[in-house]
Design goal:
CATH topology: Double Stranded RNA Binding Domain
CATH superfamily: Lipoprotein like domain
Number of strands: 8
Strand content: 35-45%
Shape: elongated
Order of helices and strands: HEEEEHEEEEH
Helix content: 25-40%
Length: 160
Amino acid sequence: MTLLIQSCGVKYSFTGGSIPKDMKTYSVLYFENLSPMVYPTLSQNLTEGLKERVRTQSSLSQVNNDGDAIFEGTITSYAITAAAAGAGALQRAENSRLTITVKVKYTNRLDQTGESNFEESFTQFKEFAGSNISAVEAQLNQDIIKMLTEDIYNRAFANW
């Protein structure tokens, strides 16, 4: 069985991902925030969150530039919308939703065919009570970044 796994040319991980056996390094370039609405630390937090996700769920080594796997992209949307309106004359939002969308370009420099490369958008959201986000915004951002980085990692390495 070990010979069969080794002959497939893929290194398997118990975290649910499959990374080519020759892949040793990765780079995550800074995700610039191009959204009209800006949360000050979102770019930095997303960039660092993706670095951490790959670092903790794989055996790849992080390099600043020219990794075997390269992640780059932009934050294209940061939006707060009403998710459920309350009853009564005031018509306040009973629940609101924070949605973040990022456009990601993934390049596997070892894949001569380019079949594993992709460029696509990922969107995640979290709902919160009321319409005043200030008390919960930092936690919401952290939760959404975790979901986004999981989606990006799975798309790059789990072939989902």
